Amino acid sequence: MAYSAGNRLPFESASKLGHLNVIESEWVKSLIDDFEIDDLGLGSDINDSIWDTYDRNKEKVLQHIWVVDGSYVPVQENNKEVAFVKTALMTIEQSKIAKIDKEFPHPLQLQDIMKNSALFHSTVFPLKNIKSGKGNIYDTVRHSIFDSIKIEEQGLYFETLKWLVYEKWNMVHKNSPDFQCPHCGLKIDDGIGYDKDVDNCKFCGKEVLLTDMIGFHLDMSEDSAPVTVASSYMMIMETLMLFTVIRLHWESKDKNLVSETLYIKDGPMTLGGQYAKLVPCIRNFLDHAKRIGRPIHIMGCEKSGKYFDYLHTIERFIPLNDGEIKYAVLSHDYIRKEIQRAPEHINPYGSRTNYGEKVFVILDKNTQMVLNMSPGEYISSSDFPKSEDIMGLGRILATLPSLVSRKYEGALYPIELVNGIASMSNYPSAKILQDFVRDTLK
User: Fold this and answer.
1) Does residue 308 sit within a domain?
2) Could you report the per-residue pLDDT of 86-114, keeping only the tens digit for each?
3) What are phi and psi of 315, to 5 degrees?
4) What is the C-alpha to C-alpha distance for residues 216 and 232, in angstroms, rounded to an integer?
């Protein structure tokens, strides 16, 4: 492993002659001589059967669009460290996007779309060598998370958290999922009582917060917290902000509104680790919506990673006629064999963590994307999901062409615009925040 670059010196480059010992090795030569080519040429092993063609005029375009994104920046000042988190929720009308020139968008048109259309949420967490009136870093972060979610937008996001974990959409009184007490460490099997913001641990009697159920405290020690707390909080807030809009639309007098809207998350529809306990709550709601005929058109967009790389490897072998949309709903078995290249797992792909399934989409020779879409209920079968399992697949596909941006490869205008609002760069954002911390902590 090479040395990384520092503030004064460059990184260590790899040896330009390191390959010589490899190709001169008699053992390596004997192994390669024993290899046999097992393919029939480039593209011969591409599974065409997973691809379907969609007629873009088959279904109505979704008229309303909501999109969420977030970012975080850790800042160090001397031996102190904090992390700033910012998330943004934006709404865009289909009629305005349709007027934009995809090749040469006019700045004033983009400005008109963004005007008075976004909500922001921001907070800051101490990570190292900082105290507050609430105690050590462990308790400070716990209460900061609780207060940040509960106070913002008059408690709308906090109410959405309760709506999901207590399944209030189902009108059945249900406790929260179980979780580990942040004080005594014992598992509270009964969770927090229905509709409560706080409760008491039945073992130690100390106060536990509804946000403790999410599990942030499991990543922290008493006097320090890793930056993953900030990234996990960003991920949770993106989910809560998007589902706040879904909740309000669901409860609207206009019962069709929730099914006439496209909800977009920048990134995969997944929650890993201890945060996965929210996934069954989300799945249950989405499956309920699907079963009663009020589909939720929700999707995540992956702009990097193994699925993105795999699609760019195979897309040139997929035949595409002008005006066609090609899409592939990836089954669990296909993902395991072709992308992960892994043996069968005890836990099937995504069984704990995903509330969306992978869908490849090719709109034209320059526009390919990896999307996540909801099937509602998760089924562990190896051939799940199929196209008919994905909720609202047709209308999402019909809407995508009007959202395409030519500024970046495979880009969508809603994600591009909200990213411009939510993102914080290493420079100058991190430098400005560092100066802010320095001045504030004097």
Assistant:
1) yes
2) 999 999 877 666 666 666 666 666 666 66
3) -60, -30
4) 8
Q: What is the pTM of this model?
A: 0.89
Q: How many angstroms separate the CA atoms of 71 and 367, rounded?
A: 25
**What is the distance between the alpha carbons of residues 141 and 79, in angstroms, rounded to a whole number?**
18
For 91, residues 6+ apart whose C-beta sits below 8 A from its C-beta are: 64, 65, 66, 67, 117, 118, 245
Which tens digit of pLDDT belongs to each residue from 22-68? 778 888 888 888 876 665 455 555 667 899 999 888 899 999 999 99
Any domain includes 100: yes
Extract the tokens encoding 194. Answer: 């229905």
* Number of domains observed in the structure of the chain: 1
Long-range contacts of 313-319 (CB under 8 A, 24+ apart): 314/43, 314/46, 315/362, 315/368, 316/43, 317/42, 317/43, 317/46, 318/46, 318/48, 318/51, 318/362
Nearest to 81 by CA among 111, 115, 125: 125
Q: How far apart are CA 182 and CA 201, in angstroms?
A: 9
Helix or strand holding residue 349 (H, E):
none
Residue 160 lies in a domain: no
Q: Is the dihedral of CA 418, 421, 423, 427 positive or negative?
A: positive
Q: Is residue 199 part of a domain?
A: no
In this structure, the chain runs to a length of: 442
Q: What is the pLDDT of residue 89?
A: 94
Please provide residue 184's backbone torsions phi and psi, each rounded to the nearest 5 degrees: -100, -15
Question: Over 70: is that where the pLDDT of 323 sits?
Answer: yes
Domain that holds residue 325: 55-119+261-421
Between CA 213 and CA 206 the distance in angstroms is: 14
Tokens (6 digits) for 312 = 């760019």
* pLDDT of res. 106: 63
Q: Round to the nearest angstrom and report the end-to-end CA distance of the chain.
A: 40
Q: How far is CA 396 from CA 317, 354, 429, in A?
A: 24, 19, 35
